[in-house]
Amino acid sequence: MTCKTFTYLLMGLLVSGSLIGSAAPVGLAQAPASSTPTTTSQNPTRQERAEDLWQTHQLSVILAGLLLGGYLGVLWLRPLVLLKLPAKDLEVPWTTWRIPLGMVRWFKYRDRVLDAWVKQHWSVAETEFLKLVTSLY
Question: What is the pTM of this model?
Fold first, then answer.
């Protein structure tokens, strides 16, 4: 599944309401009308929808959090490691997914990474620059 296909699938789920939970559950919609008030509401609350989303997508949310935490940790502690990312579409291991080049560049060329590179190479560049012969005329 490509990233574009995944995006279209996600947008389709959001538009149809099945991911948001705006559609009434099938069991409640087919329940016969009774004269006594029921305790379950026809429209789930925001907390119930969030709990339902958490139960159905728990593994995905945990993996996304770990990936984001790992990236931020590398960005904070060792930003120059990110410069070793390939300059092409990045393949996700054990899947057929690929991260597009634009997103790889976004991960790779952050301000903190480039600042660390300049800090590492500044002394060499400064000495070479000062060796240049300048003329006043």
Answer: 0.47
- Token code pair at residue 105: 């560049």
104's tokens: 């790889």
Q: Are residues 86 and 100 in the same domain?
A: yes
- State which residues form the domain around 90: 79-125
Residue 9 phi/psi, 5-degree rounding, is -65, -45
For residue 95, what are the CA distances in angstroms to 33, 59, 98, 102? Answer: 48, 16, 8, 20
Three-state SS for 98?
strand
Answer whether residue 30 is part of any domain: no
99, β-bridge pairs: 90
Chain centroid offset of residue 100 CA: 13
> CB neighbours of 43 closer than 8 A, spacing ≥ 6?
24
pLDDT per position as a tens digit, 59-80: 888 888 888 888 888 888 888 8
